[in-house]
Amino acid sequence: RLTWGAVKASPGYRIAATDGLSCDARCYPVQIGGHLPGVVVIPEVPEYPEFQVELVAALSLRQHLSLEDGDSLEFSTFEPLSVRAVLFDADGTLVDSVEAFRIVAEQAAAGKYRVTREAVNEALNTPGGAFWELIVPEEEENRSNVIAGLRHTAFELWDSVLNAHVTMIPGLAAVFECLTRAEISLGIVTSSDGRSLGPLREAGLLEYFDVILAAADVEHLKPHPEGLLQAAKTLGVSPEEAAYVGDTVIDVQASRAAGMASIVVLTGAGDSARLSAAGPDRIAASMSQLPKLLELG
């Protein structure tokens, strides 16, 4: 770990002011309270107090850490992520499919039930993924049969919705090329049936991956670590030598259970506050930032 003086002496990430009312600043990614990702911001102004620290996080630190005035709070710089393999989730990470989940559910519901993006996000961030239980009222007659029917209908509709609405996350080819040039092995571990990987297959990008595991390939779905550990074993790396990239709390939980580094992207079902609370090692706005997070340039 670096001392505070060494951190301040390093360049960090510079934020340039865009108007005459603000100032330039440097920011440094840190881990707050042992698990929350955040940044230290140092404004570049004359006579800025030497030992003043401004912490920024995606959620309320006072509330999440139960802080009172006068409490001590520890933060530390991140250790570099040095990995030999990177595993990826599929939906919301490699393919933009979360809105398609809402569309197919809306079509299956056929106007009888209100389907919202919020419900989709909640289900995708909750182990078990009980989406229809969030949609169908508890007082619904024969509720379990109704839910089973909706699931079947959505499954049957998925291919047409997928073809019309699911696309690749931008910039994947450049990211995969950068990782493979650095001799990092790649894999995919998804709790879906894998149909949403079609856009990557059509673009010829699945050739970058040495292992692809879908729901049918494992006994236990995420957040159980089975799929991640199986993929790492296939790639010939230990869990500590791998990172898992996803977009939900479940992906963070699976990473932790497997003993892998956790990286989340804000392109799917998780927002920055929800994902921060889960305690990933890194948060990226988009997949294009992954090489920099792995210090590959």
TrEMBL record:
<dbReference type="InterPro" id="IPR041492">
    <property type="entry name" value="HAD_2"/>
</dbReference>
<dbReference type="Pfam" id="PF13419">
    <property type="entry name" value="HAD_2"/>
</dbReference>
<dbReference type="GO" id="GO:0000166">
    <property type="term" value="F:nucleotide binding"/>
</dbReference>
<dbReference type="GO" id="GO:0008531">
    <property type="term" value="F:riboflavin kinase activity"/>
</dbReference>
<dbReference type="GO" id="GO:0009231">
    <property type="term" value="P:riboflavin biosynthetic process"/>
</dbReference>
<dbReference type="InterPro" id="IPR006439">
    <property type="entry name" value="HAD-SF_hydro_IA"/>
</dbReference>
<keyword id="KW-0285">Flavoprotein</keyword>
<dbReference type="InterPro" id="IPR023465">
    <property type="entry name" value="Riboflavin_kinase_dom_sf"/>
</dbReference>
<dbReference type="InterPro" id="IPR023214">
    <property type="entry name" value="HAD_sf"/>
</dbReference>
<protein>
    <recommendedName>
        <fullName>Riboflavin kinase domain-containing protein</fullName>
    </recommendedName>
</protein>
<keyword id="KW-0547">Nucleotide-binding</keyword>
<dbReference type="InterPro" id="IPR050155">
    <property type="entry name" value="HAD-like_hydrolase_sf"/>
</dbReference>
<feature type="domain" description="Riboflavin kinase">
    <location>
        <begin position="21"/>
        <end position="74"/>
    </location>
</feature>
<keyword id="KW-0808">Transferase</keyword>
<dbReference type="InterPro" id="IPR036412">
    <property type="entry name" value="HAD-like_sf"/>
</dbReference>
<dbReference type="InterPro" id="IPR023602">
    <property type="entry name" value="Riboflavin_kinase_CTP-dep"/>
</dbReference>
<dbReference type="Pfam" id="PF01982">
    <property type="entry name" value="CTP-dep_RFKase"/>
</dbReference>
<dbReference type="InterPro" id="IPR023198">
    <property type="entry name" value="PGP-like_dom2"/>
</dbReference>
<keyword id="KW-0288">FMN</keyword>
<dbReference type="GO" id="GO:0008967">
    <property type="term" value="F:phosphoglycolate phosphatase activity"/>
</dbReference>
<dbReference type="GO" id="GO:0006281">
    <property type="term" value="P:DNA repair"/>
</dbReference>
